[in-house]
Amino acid sequence: MSENPKSSEEQTEKKVPSTKKRFSVKEAEALGYYDFMSYLGVLYYHIGGLTSSKKLAELCQIDSTKKILMVGCGTGFSACYLARKIGCEVVGIDIAELSIEEAKERAKRQGVSDKAKFRVGDTYALPFKAGTFDAVITEFVSQFLDRERAFKEFSRVLKPGAYVGINEMYREKGIPAKAAEEIAQAEKKFIEITGLPFSLSSPEEWKEELERSGLKDVKVRMCKPSQHLQEIKNMAEAMGGTWIFVKYLIDLILKMVKYSLLSRKIRYRFKRLGEGKKILLRKKSTSKYVGYVLATGRKYL
Ligand SMILES: C[S@@+](CC[C@H](N)C(=O)[O-])C[C@H]1O[C@@H](n2cnc3c(N)ncnc32)[C@H](O)[C@@H]1O
């Protein structure tokens, strides 16, 4: 993959300060889950971070000549990263309006507005002509969707030979009933806080679901969460340097503490989020059955 030749100074977040509006506690409570998290400044949600975003792009054979669609792009952190690192054209779409606002600002701050474009839109009715993209990518989005409807819609907007690439969580099949029950409880917690359907497929089911939409050459790679120093370095670099990243983290924590202290509703959301994440990612007896897949499939005529 070719690197975008922009200088490292041009590539940082520090150039244009964010002009984000401040929300009162009542206004913040009324926001949808992902709009609220984008308002706080959460960069991304998928496991594996920018390293897995780059890996997935490689698996989909993305280079600087390609045009990709990132469905459920959130605040555009991975989309801007891929536009910057690979030089590909990226279109990001998300149903959460504040996330898209932030994504557009991020593209400006990173100097990639010409390559990374964002718009509000729904996965199930993508506002693009058939055969537009070289790849459609989702990162922690398809697990919230009706797979059959979504993958068919992804297929529609792909060029022949182009890829669907997904980074989504899995839970293994045939696991002990107690672990299965706890994982189901975690799914319910995420449904409650996001207001979206949420269910984890097994790696075999992800394969079937991609194939059922007509995609061919489907490959599913199982991955386990791990915290690499390299990933933290990637994030700091994407933010414009270590100190900007540290300042960002402090701001994020302070905002989370502030809204938790001032709002019982928001405190409850964070509590539920923590409980769900613990079951899926940290508790040994359950998290050993959970991971994420980097899966790809191709559209053939
Ligand atoms: C877990 S977040 C992942 C965001 C981003 N891909 C990332 O990795 O950080 C799920 C995203 O999917 C978006 N989403 C959910 N349902 C959607 C739909 N029907 N159409 C478009 N976006 C949707 C949410 O607004 C949210 O930004």
For the termini, the CA-CA separation is 27 Å
User: In percent, how helical is the residue content?
Assistant: 40-55%
Order of helices and strands: HHHEHEHEEHEHHEHHHHE
* Shape annotation: globular
Could you say which structural class the secondary elements and strand pairing correspond to? alpha/beta
Give the CATH class of the domain at 45-178 and 197-242 and 293-298: Alpha Beta
CATH architecture of the domain at 45-178 and 197-242 and 293-298: 3-Layer(aba) Sandwich
* Percent range for β-strand residues: 15-25%
| Overall average residue pLDDT | 91
DSSP strand tally = 7
What integer value in Å does the Rg equal?
19 Å
Number of helices: 12
Examine the coordinates and then state which fold CATH places here, giving the name of the CATH topology of the domain at 45-178 and 197-242 and 293-298: Rossmann fold
Compounds present?
S-adenosylmethionine
Main beta-sheet strand count, sense and barrel state: 7 strands, mixed
Give me the CATH superfamily of the domain at 45-178 and 197-242 and 293-298.
Vaccinia Virus protein VP39
Strand order of the largest sheet: 3-2-1-4-5-7-6
Low-pLDDT windows of residues:
1-19
Looking at this protein, list some descriptive labels.
301 residues; Rossmann fold; seven-stranded mixed beta sheet; 12 helices; 7 strands
